[in-house]
């Protein structure tokens, strides 16, 4: 457990479940909503932030992540109220990383300047593709020009730590088109780039078109999805290309200039405690995991007035509460830690669990090492996935379960 000033570190996640319109591939907990609903939700979220604080007095907040959905639908005033509630309720580190996810088409210079004043110091902008045809096929609300304008406004508003989210393996996408998106993105010089492959999720319009896992791709009137080989090629070329441009892969799908890795996400992979608030948000206070109820009406009613502070059980909106046993904690340590290219520390494992790592996972390590998917470094004190291991990470990580 990492500590600051003798206190446990805490990441705070605030979920904003609203979007202008639903993208065709998206199964996140988000939906369009009117201004009144958004305002009522911000009120309720501020109450939850205040109420949960009692349970985290022995923690120091190192990161805050306002995610969604589309947090950039909030006014600067609403963002300011949320962050003030965090600052006043918790022991807040002055140097905390405070990220807001934003979508092009919901931003302007004034809003961005207001976010900066509210204390946001990192933006994560969902571009996905630099090609308007691809953006349209995803059902995104923006075009590339709008993104460029918003990116420029963000820099002018003083944001010096920006992530750009990209997505490969899109319908009809060629390797050339993906590389062009990467080229254009890197040329802008953001500090961080996330590059994920499109996944066809059940219950989305894309799964109606392409079938579960894209199995029916190419059989109908829609542009086909890239096959597995092309998907893998895109992934490999991404790493090669971004490395040349000074971006280093520090996690399976995340690249950064040195010093700009996302501290909030690293907290997830290192199993630092985090508190998620807002509907559907997940939390972890070792060894317990839970989620907030996903029903918006229930959430708004639960936090409808100040009385929730005193009269209602703080656990009343917690769902899927699970206390991990020792074996599950060890498995998480490995599976989350190996997502990062620096891998896991074996002395840290011994310190946390009181048993040598190889005594627990020796056979899995031996098998994956023989297959060239796992390797030791720093005189045997660390273990990480090799480049080939990262390519087949789902298979490799499953060996530890
Ligand atoms: S903007 Fe993001 S969260 Fe909203 S619908 Fe699109 S993919 Fe989903």
Q: What report would you give on this structure?
A:
With 401 residues, the protein is an alpha/beta fold. It has 2 domains: 3-269, Aldolase class I (TIM Barrel); 340-398, no CATH class. It is 40% helix and 23% strand. It has 16 helices and 16 strands. The chain has helices at residues 35-52, 76-89, 109-118, 132-138, 144-156, 175-188, 205-210, 228-244, 263-269, 296-302, 308-311, 326-337, 346-353, 357-370, 387-391, 393-398, and strands at 3-4, 7-16, 59-68, 91-102, 122-128, 162-168, 192-197, 248-251, 254-256, 273-277, 282-285, 288-292, 318-323, 344-345, 374-377, 382-385. The strands form 3 sheets. Strands 1, 2, 3, 4, 5, 6, 7, 8, 9 and 10 form a 10-stranded mixed sheet that branches. Strands 11-12-13 form a 3-stranded antiparallel sheet, with no helix packed on it. Strands 14-16-15 form a 3-stranded antiparallel sheet. Helix 6 links the parallel strand 6 and strand 7. Helix 1 (35-52) runs parallel beside helix 2 (76-89), helix 2 runs parallel beside helix 3 (109-118) and helix 6 (175-188) runs parallel beside helix 8 (228-244). The longest helix is centred in the first third of the chain and has 18 residues, at 35-52. It is globular, with a radius of gyration of 21 Å. The protein starts with a strand and ends with a helix.
Keywords:
ten-stranded mixed beta sheet; binds iron/sulfur cluster; TIM Barrel; 16 helices; 2 domains; 401 residues; globular; single chain; alpha/beta
């Amino acid at each position: 457990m990492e500590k600051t000033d003798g206190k446990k570190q805490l990441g705070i996640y605030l979920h904003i479940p609203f979007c202008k319109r639903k993208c065709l591939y998206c199964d996140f907990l988000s939906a369009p909503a009117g201004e009144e609903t958004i305002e009522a939700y911000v009120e309720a979220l501020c109450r939850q932030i205040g109420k949960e604080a009692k349970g985290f007095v022995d923690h120091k907040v190192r990161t805050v992540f306002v995610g969604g959905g589309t947090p950039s639908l909030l006014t600067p005033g609403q963002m300011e109220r949320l962050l003030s509630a965090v600052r006043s309720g918790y022991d807040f580190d002055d140097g905390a990383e405070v990220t807001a996810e934003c979508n092009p088409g919901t931003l302007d210079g004034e809003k961005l300047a207001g976010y900066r004043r509210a204390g946001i110091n990192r933006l994560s902008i969902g571009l996905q593709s630099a090609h308007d045809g691809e953006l349209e096929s995803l059902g995104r609300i923006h075009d590339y020009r709008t993104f460029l304008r918003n990116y420029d406004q963000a820099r002018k508003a003083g944001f010096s730590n920006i992530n750009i989210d990209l997505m490969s393996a899109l319908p009809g996408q060629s390797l050339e088109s993906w590389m062009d998106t990467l080229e254009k993105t890197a040329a802008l010089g953001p500090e961080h780039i996330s590059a994920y492959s499109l996944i066809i999720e059940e219950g989305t319009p894309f799964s109606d078109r392409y079938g579960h896992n894209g199995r029916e791709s190419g059989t109908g009137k829609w542009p086909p999805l890239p096959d597995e080989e092309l998907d893998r090629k895109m992934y490999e070329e991404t790493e090669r290309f971004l490395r040349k441009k000074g971006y280093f892969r520090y996690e399976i799908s995340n690249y950064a200039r040195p010093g700009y890795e996302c501290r909030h996400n690293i907290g997830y992979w290192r199993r630092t405690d985090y508190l998620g608030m807002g509907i559907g948000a997940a939390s972890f206070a070792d060894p317990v995991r839970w989620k907030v109820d996903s029903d918006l009406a229930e959430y708004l009613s639960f936090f409808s007035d100040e009385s929730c502070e005193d009269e209602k059980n703080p656990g009343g909106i917690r769902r899927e509460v699970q206390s991990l046993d020792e074996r599950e904690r060890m498995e998480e340590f490995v599976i989350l830690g190996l997502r990062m290219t620096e891998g896991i520390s074996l002395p840290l494992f011994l310190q946390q669990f009181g048993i040598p790592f190889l005594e627990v996972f020796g056979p899995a390590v031996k098998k994956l090492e023989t297959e060239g998917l796992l390797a030791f470094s720093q005189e045997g004190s660390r273990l990480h996935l090799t480049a080939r291991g990262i390519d087949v990470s789902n298979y490799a990580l499953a060996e530890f379960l």
